[in-house]
Design a protein that fits this description.
four-stranded antiparallel β-sheet, 115 residues
Length: 115
């Protein structure tokens, strides 16, 4: 049974703050990569492409964690909480909106044996 957690964290910067938000999110990468259970932690920005014209927030973090406990511990790190307080929750922050979702790769009612 897979215990991996996949997180997609999308951000809509305030007008004119795209570069600042991207850089602020990039600054979170090095310490996250130091966490033992961090399998992937990469900030990306949306680009124009004729084969993928969907709508989304323009900056997205792609994360994979070894398990739920590791993801939740990451979310409780001081650096992460301070980022959300300063950039998302504060009226003075550079982020207009954020959308953080977690996923599993297991089908519903998957019955793999517990090891």
């Amino acid at each position: 049974m897979s215990q991996k957690i996949y997180c997609t964290a999308s951000f809509r910067p305030k007008p004119g703050r795209e570069v600042a938000v991207f850089k602020a999110l990039q600054a979170l990468e090095p310490n996250a990569h130091r966490e033992d259970a961090c399998l992937l932690y990469t900030v990306t920005r949306q680009i124009d492409n004729p084969f993928a014209q969907g709508e989304s927030y323009p900056i997205v973090f792609h994360e994979i964690w070894a398990n739920r406990e590791a993801f939740e511990a990451h979310c409780q790190r001081r650096e992460i909480q301070q980022f959300f307080q300063a950039q998302v929750e504060s009226p003075e922050g550079d982020i207009e909106a954020a959308n953080v979702c977690v996923y599993t790769d297991e089908p519903i009612d998957f019955d793999a044996p517990q090891l």
